[in-house]
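Slack export, channel: ligand-projects

TW: morning all. Re-posting the request from yesterday since it got buried. We need the structure predicted with the small molecule present, not the apo form. The ligand is 2-acetamido-2-deoxy-beta-D-glucopyranose; the SMILES is in the block with the sequence. No rush, but it would help planning for next week.
GE: picking it up
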Amino acid sequence: MAHSSNFNPIVVILFGFILLLAVLVPRSEARPRSFFVFGDSLVDNGNNNYLLTTARADSPPYGIDYPTRRPTGRFSNGFNIPDLISQQLGAESTLPYLSSELTGENLLTGANFGSAGVGILNDTGAQFMNVIRMHMQLDYFEEYQQRLTALIGASRTKRLVNQALFLMTVGGNDFVNNYYLVPNSARSRQFSLPHYVKFIICEYRKHLQRLYDLGARRVLVTGTGPLGCAPAERAMHSTNGRCSFELQRSAALYNSRLEQMLEGLNRRFGNDIFIAANTAQMHKDFVANPTTYGFVTSKVACCGQGPYNGIGVCRTTSNLCSNRGLYAFWDPFHPSEKANRLIVEQIMSGSTRYMKPMNLSTILELDAST
Ligand SMILES: *[C@@H]1O[C@H](CO)[C@@H](O)[C@H](O)[C@H]1NC(C)=O
Ligand SMILES: *[C@@H]1O[C@H](CO)[C@@H](O)[C@H](O)[C@H]1NC(C)=O
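GE: finished. pasting the full token output, ligand included:
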């Protein structure tokens, strides 16, 4: 009781004000670079938990290897790719855009707009009901900039966005949860595969153009994984558990068109704004030679049921492997944390076979020296 009277309220207020200044006016060098994430379940870190959707990872055993040992909305046993990239930037993981904690100084870290189930097209993932489709993720990014402007002003907001790193991961669902969702799907009646790929790449280009218009100047764009080799596809769309030929063909076509499209954007906007990460090649390495990378298998998911644990979704009653680090796939569709680590290692330091025009550590060095 007596102790509290020792505090001079003016001093407390002044001290609080100085603390606030220290938070709001950091030296730009001292703060890790902001990071913004867009895309699907490979990058969603909890947005779908706030939505009425069936595309969610909010019950055990999801998150079993996360520091809290609890589900977070990430489609992983532990960290996902954005978390591991944040760690490389020396930063905390970005918060989901819909999180109520994303206010004040937390806005400076960046934000994650990813939403499981989305694709490049609006009609992709319709069966999951409410998800944040790509145009909406970009609308939210505009809204984010208005909120940040209210906090630090327009010119600092612009600088923060121009100097930030962006990650875009989308496209797989346009095959798995659209074109090939059911036999004779509407899109497959409308387009042959090569024409469909051309169409979605053209739509993707518009999203990237808009991201550029909104200030993005360093954008990592990942291709799809080897879609046909996911345990779900081995179980459902192939014979003898081999990779599904049709989905592998789709991924190959899409990934090569995507790289060409990014080269075109770089020619137009100036070099090295869009960086292509050949995630299919990274995956292929450990799908072809799992033991080289410390996996016992790349065919069977750690969590699931049925052949290859590839049927349905991962849930409390599923088969669950005891050592998640030995499996390339965590659930029927998504890589394990260990696989995500290998992918991020290649993103950081891979040769031009994986990263075009260059790997992320080179980009970070370049940006640090300018
Ligand atoms: C997707 O939906 C949004 C909102 O309804 C619309 O503005 C946009 O044009 C649509 N995109 C395409 C490619 O149809
Ligand atoms: C990263 O990219 C740079 C530039 O292309 C290259 O010199 C370097 O060797 C790459 N890192 C690794 C580990 O290959």
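GE: first-pass observations. The pocket of 2-acetamido-2-deoxy-beta-D-glucopyranose (ligand 2) is lined by residues 349, 351, 358-359, 361-362 (CB under 6 Å). The longest strand covers residues 35-39.
TW: perfect, thank you
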